[in-house]
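Reviewers asked in the last cycle whether our approach scales beyond single polypeptides. To address this, we selected a multi-component target totalling 581 residues and predicted its structure end to end. The input consisted of the following lines:
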Amino acid sequence: MKGRVWKFGDDINTDIIISGKYKFKTLDMDELSKHAMEALDPDFSKKVKAGDFIVAGKNFGCGSSREQAPLVLKHLEISCIFARSFARIFYRNCINIGLLALESPDAYSKVETGDEIEVQLERGEAKNLTRGTTFTFNPLPGFLLKVVEDGGLVEHYKKRGRFVWEDIA
Amino acid sequence: MGQTLAEKIFSRKLNRRVSAGEIVVSPVDLAMGQDGTAPLAIQAFRNMGAKKVFDSQKVVLVIDHVAPSTSEGTSKLHALMREFAREQECKLYDVGYGICHQILAEEYDRPGMIIVGADSHSCMHGAFGAFATGIGSTELAAVMASGKLWFRIPESIKVTLDGQLPKGVTSKDLVLHLAGILKADGANYMSLEFGGGAVKSMSMDSRLTICNMAVEMGAKCGLMEPDRVTEEYLGEPVPTISPDRDAEYKDEVQIEVEKVEPQVAKPHSVDNVCSVREVEGIEVNQVFLGSCTNGRLEDLRAAASILKGRKVREGVRMIVIPASRRIFLSALAEGLIEIFLKAGCVVGSPGCGPCMGGHIGILGPGEVCVSTSNRNFLGRMGSEQAKIYLASPLTAAASAVTGKITDPREVL
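The resulting structure, written as structure tokens, was:
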């Protein structure tokens, strides 16, 4: 995976990712995703390209349980979110819709908006091609990676007829 | 090694001893969705190819966030929920019945239950000694299909609230104070477990306010031991579910409640907390009394104790939204609604109200709101140029009367 970085700070909440004033009106992601990150950057949805990455500080996605938050980012074809930490509901939502969310202790200090990075998932490492540095990230637990690889819970269930975690005792 | 409340509840449910860090799959006793999350869950449920919910008695849908609907788009989503509830023969609480969490507290919550809700404030039900947490829509669909979900047994932070609440200070002030200490991610992935003399002597209404805001510190759940107060609220005996004395905690916080003053969370984060005195005098345009955090009878009584015989300051609008129809009726019978109306308040039908900027009470640019709700994020209640101060019902009512942020002890 290779793409550009959009960098955000700490405690980016779900109201910022997608405001409550839009999400009650429609399930149309073309429409909703126009407003992604609007409070911080009104043109974010126009500027972001397929395959881009988000890098953030701690507690990314705090606040509401709205799945529309990771959904609009996935719809804009963000390929992966790196953060120092994630709010737990947002983290689970990402996995459940098939969007990679990876905890990285040092991504935040190693990249700036606009940098190009190349991610090697299996190695738990990413290269900053713009700056010639690298950062690491924690892999997803195996059973969750399976859900992401299947494209989220819906596809996962369609494919297997049951949920992978049902195998856990 | 002893067990925390979270470990106790899961061990009891699974009939085996479990410890923090373990990933378990547990049956779910109640799954809830509201109009901001259920439509996506229904879509996911159908896309999965699922046909029937695991147990129609254990799936509850509530229309409370934008209720009644204010646009055609919203009406279509509400219609989808009604149609699904009919098809699946599960319970749907329609507009005006109340806020999802309040309905659960009034009609469903019991100690020891495993509750998941597609709403982040689902942690509120931990006040009954139930494990309750927020999930997303697709996960709700998975629970509706299978009746089960995976959980990582959380580590716990023990919060001891000692002493007696001073006059003018409420459980809302305590939980805001705690958010100021722990910060927005201080309990991330963890269970906040509340105890101590102040909790013991607290009503269920007050306890619910504290557990409701556990998520604002990142917590997975906020738990309290069921006791005589729980028993009286439910009108039935409760099982003993207590943490062991030698339980292992990740951290401990002790608060002498006598020393806590009325608190506010300043814009634009819930952990940006200070005492009301430090921000006194800031002019206010709107006051909101309500939400799943502070829309209960005790909250309405507290605000009415200040508003009785007084007027909301000219130029200020105060919106009062009881959290449920049951509360609205009790408030009516007690004369509280009359007090609000005579003071010049707007009283709305039960639901979430202005809390998340979905419909009524939208703030304009530059406006300041004192709100008893749970989040003051940038743009949450409307304009990104508006400012939200979170406070107790007493501080909200005092500020409505003076038109400025006011320490309630000055008017009590």
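Chain A has a mean pLDDT of 94. We regard this as preliminary and will revisit it once experimental data from Aim 1 are available.
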